[in-house]
User: Which sequence fits this backbone?
DNA sequence: AATCTGTCCAACCGCACCTGT
DNA sequence: GACAGGTGCGGTTGGACAGAT
């Protein structure tokens, strides 16, 4: 038995939103908020719409600070970089591009950026399109294949952005194991697929990431990354697999900070399941050695690992592995959750 | 001018996950 | 633990539009 539909589909309007509907929804949310219940919202707001439709309309179009229009080169690079690393986790990518929505980015990727990259990719790769398309029936390639293709395209990135010091996926000194033995690992700026560029209006201050430590075939945080937004559309969580990095103003652990972005000096804490602060600093081993349910492809882990290099002569971007996150003893043989 | 073709993007759909009971 | 309801996400669709023929 399938689950009940979220709304009475016979009595809800579908299709494009009228200005009147937009106005109603906007006014209602500005006045009362979402109330934490999208399903009930349309009725309260006097809209004959499905709650999901209202949510989508608000998040993608009506909420404040939505940015429409052309994507900048910097945004292109961020998207390419993140896509190469985490795949089509549009919500996470969107979280790094303030004002952009996941839907926006997804559409941009599918309609423009993908083609742009394909045009730059070597001919041999172009013969077999690496990207899934809504207009093609080819199954999507596994993520590691995508990664390798992006690497190939990376050389072209250098050409494409040669005036902007941007190289796609330059070879990086590999040392995934370094993640496990050092308390802190920095990611050299030149090992990233994009360079901060203040001329384009974005200034990256020292940026620190929690990076999922790599061990064997697994990322310590898990293989799946996702980000969830709160009801107001602001990303509040980044999660890897079943573990989460939750943004909380608790002054806890490391942080991602970006100048020029809305989300400055974000502090992250780790949580799991209940999304609360309890149970922090506990390692849990998963008997089967998998993170979540999905073991990572070795190639993928290797690729991710190669994005990490020790030492940095540039403060623009640093990747730090907090010693609290690394329990070297427990990385032996088994993957684990941190929560 | 009419038709065809491709592009873009807002919106929908189904699924997985989370939470509360 | 099972179930139901709500939420969020990624994939896909369909219509509007622009350019080509």
Assistant:
């Amino acid at each position: 038995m399938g689950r009940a539909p979220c709304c009475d589909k016979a009595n809800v309007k579908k299709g494009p939103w009228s200005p009147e509907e937009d106005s109603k929804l906007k006014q209602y949310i500005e006045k009362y908020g979402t109330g934490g219940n999208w399903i009930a919202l349309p009725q309260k707001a006097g809209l004959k719409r499905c709650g999901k439709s209202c949510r989508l309309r608000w998040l993608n179009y009506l909420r404040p600070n939505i940015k429409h229009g052309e994507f900048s080169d910097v945004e292109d690079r961020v998207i390419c970089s993140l896509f190469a690393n985490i795949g089509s986790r549009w919500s996470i990518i969107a979280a790094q591009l303030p004002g952009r929505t996941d839907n926006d980015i997804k559409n941009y990727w599918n309609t423009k950026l993908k083609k742009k990259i394909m045009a730059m990719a070597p001919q041999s790769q172009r013969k077999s399109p690496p990207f899934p398309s809504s207009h093609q029936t080819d199954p999507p390639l596994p993520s590691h294949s995508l990664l390798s293709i992006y690497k190939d395209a990376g050389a072209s990135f250098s050409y494409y952005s040669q005036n902007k010091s941007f190289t796609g996926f330059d070879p990086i000194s590999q040392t995934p194991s370094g993640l496990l033995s050092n308390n802190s690992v920095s990611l050299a700026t030149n090992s990233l697929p994009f360079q901060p560029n203040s001329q384009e209006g974005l200034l990256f201050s020292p940026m620190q990431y929690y990076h999922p430590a790599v061990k064997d075939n697994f990322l310590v945080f898990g293989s799946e990354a996702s980000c969830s937004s709160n009801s107001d559309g602001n990303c509040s969580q980044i999660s890897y697999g079943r573990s989460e990095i939750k943004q909380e103003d608790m002054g806890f652990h490391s942080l991602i900070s970006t100048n020029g972005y809305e989300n400055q000096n974000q502090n992250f804490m780790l949580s799991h399941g209940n999304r609360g602060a309890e149970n922090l600093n506990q390692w849990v081993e998963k008997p089967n050695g998998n993170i979540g349910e999905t073991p990572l492809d070795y190639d993928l882990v290797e690729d991710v690992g190669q994005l990490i290099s020790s030492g940095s002569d540039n403060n623009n971007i640093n990747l730090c592995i907090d010693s609290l996150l690394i329990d070297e003893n427990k990385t032996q043989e088994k993957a684990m959750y941190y929560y």
User: Anything to note?
Assistant: The radius of gyration of chain A is 21 Å. The first strand of chain A starts at residue 207 and ends at 209. Residues 19-62 of chain A form one domain. Residues 3-4, 6, 15-16, 36-39, 51-52, 55, 59, 88-91, 102-103, 106, 110, 132, 134, 226-229, 231 of chain A lie near DNA strand C (CB under 10 Å from a C1').
